[in-house]
Amino acid sequence: MNQELPRETCGLMGVFNHPEAATLVYLGLYALQHRGQESAGIVSSDGERQYCHKRLGLVADVFNKENLATLKGNSAIGHVRYSTTGSTTAANTQPIVVNYKGGSLAMAHNGNITNAEALKRELESRGAIFQTTTDSEILVHLIAQATSMDFHESLIGSLVRLKGAYSILMIYEDRLIALRDPRGFRPLCLGRLDGAHVVASESCALDIIDAEYVREIQPGEILTLGSTGITSEKPFADVPPSFCVFEYIYYSRPDSLIGGQNVYDFRHRLGEQLADEQPADGDVVVAVPDSSNPAALGYSKRSGIPSDFGLIRSHYVGRTFIEPDQAIRDFGVRIKYNPVRSVLSDKRVVLVDDSIVRGTTSGKIVKMIRAAGAREVHFRVSAPPWLNPCYYGIDTPREAELIANANSVEAIRQHIGADSLGYMSIEGLKRVVPRTISYCFACFEGVYPGGKPARCQKESLEVSPRMNKR
C-alpha cells in the first residue's frame, strides 16, 4: 500500500507495583496502537524471573486471556512497533529480553539511534553477536560489554555513547527504569494508579486504565521505580531540548497531553492560523480524516465556512492487503477513504490535511473528490512544506522523494490537481506551538539538533525492502 503520510513511531507502556501489571500494559497498548501496527509485546517480572509474550500483529491479535495469564508479576513493560531501523520480522519484535553477566534485562525503545552503524561495527569487533537488525539492540550490547558490574554505572556509561532519539523502558531485577534522550525527541509521561506507577508514550494510555497524569519525564532524565520509591537523575550534559513538533501536528492522539498541553486544542488552533494565512472561497471544509479533523474544525470556525464529513475513513485497514487480480484504479486510497457525494456534489471544497509528503495520495484524494461532484478543490495544509528527512525515529522518504524538496507550491498544486494550494508558514506554526517546551523543526527548516547525522541510520544499518517501495 502506498502510504502518503510518514509512518508512526513506536509506543511504550509500563506499570510498576500493581498485581495486574501485564493486563494494564495490554490495555495501554490498545490506546497506543496508532504508534505502531507491525508487532506488539509485553514482558512482566515478579522480581526474580521475567515472562515474555510478543509477536507480529496488532495488540488484539497478539494477546488473549490465556497468554496474558502467563505474564506474572507486579511489573511489566510493553511495546507496539513500527520499524524505522530494521525489517519487519519476528526477531525484531520488542521488548528485547536478554540474560547476560549482570542478570536479566528487558528493554523497549522508541526512537532512532543515529550512530548505530558505527557502534555496531565496534561491538561486533569485540565479539558481539546480534540477534536482530534493530538499532535498539545496540544499547543491550553496550551494557553487556561494560567493564563495571554495577548495572546503573553500565547503563549511564552506555547511554552517553548514543546519539539520536531514544525513549526507553527497562525492567532489571526488581526495578523499572524509564528514560529519555537529552534532547527529548520522543514523548514519555508518568502517571499514578492507586499505589502503582505508570509510564507511557502518551497520556491517552493512562486514561484507558483510569491512571492519573502526573508529569512528563524530562529530556535527559532517568527515572528508576523500585521498592524504596522513585529516584530521578539527569546525568547528561545540558543541551537544548528538541521535541518533535510532528508529535503535535500528526503522530500523537488528539486526546493526549504533551507538556501539559492538549493535542486537540493545538491542532484546532493550527486550523485557525491556517485560515488566517491561507483563506479560500469555499462552500464546505472537509478534513482528510482522522488526524486532520481538529485542524479542519479550526479552519471552519475561523473562516466561517461550514465543515462536514466529506470523506469517510475505514478504521479496519490492516498494514497490508490483497489487491484484486483485475486492478481497481487507486485501490490503495479507495480501501481507506470513500467520499460522501451528498456533501461534495456541486460544492467548492476546502480540503484540510496535516502534510503532503510525496503528493501521490493527495492527488488521488483530490481526484476522488472531483469524481464525487465537487466543482472546486482548494487544498490547505496545517504544516509547512516537508523539505527534509527525519533521522529521529520517524520513517520518512529520502530527500528526492519529498515533493516539496525540489518543487514550488505551484508545481505541487499542479501535481495533485487542486484549484489552489496553501501551506501553513513556519512562522505561523511557531506562533501556535505551546511555549512550555522547545522543538525540532528539522523536517521543515533542515537544521538538525546537534548537526545532521553523517548517514541516515535507516539507510545504512538495514533498509526494509518495503520502505524502498513506498
Write the layout of secondary structure elements.
Blueprint: E1 11-16, H1 21-31, E2 39-45, E3 50-56, H2 59-62, H3 65-69, E4 75-81, E5 96-100, E6 103-113, H4 116-125, H5 137-145, H6 151-159, E7 164-172, E8 175-180, E9 189-193, E10 196-200, H7 204-207, E11 212-216, E12 222-226, E13 229-233, E14 243-244, H8 245-251, E15 257-258, E16 261-262, H9 263-277, E17 284-287, H10 293-303, E18 311-313, H11 331-334, E19 337-339, H12 341-344, E20 348-353, H13 360-371, E21 376-381, H14 409-416, E22 420-423, H15 426-432, E23 439-440, H16 442-445, H17 457-460, H18 465-469
Overview of the molecule:
- With 470 residues, this protein is of the alpha+beta class.
- The protein has two domains: 232 residues, Aminohydrolase, N-terminal nucleophile (Ntn) domain (Glutamine Phosphoribosylpyrophosphate, subunit 1, domain 1, 4-Layer Sandwich); 150 residues, Rossmann fold (3-Layer(aba) Sandwich), CATH 3.40.50.2020.
- It is globular.
- The C terminus is likely disordered.
- The strands form six sheets. It has a seven-stranded antiparallel beta sheet with strand order 3-2-4-1-10-9-11. The protein has a six-stranded antiparallel beta sheet with strand order 5-6-7-8-12-13. The protein has a four-stranded parallel beta sheet with strand order 17-20-21-22, sandwiched between helices.
- It has 18 helices and 23 strands.
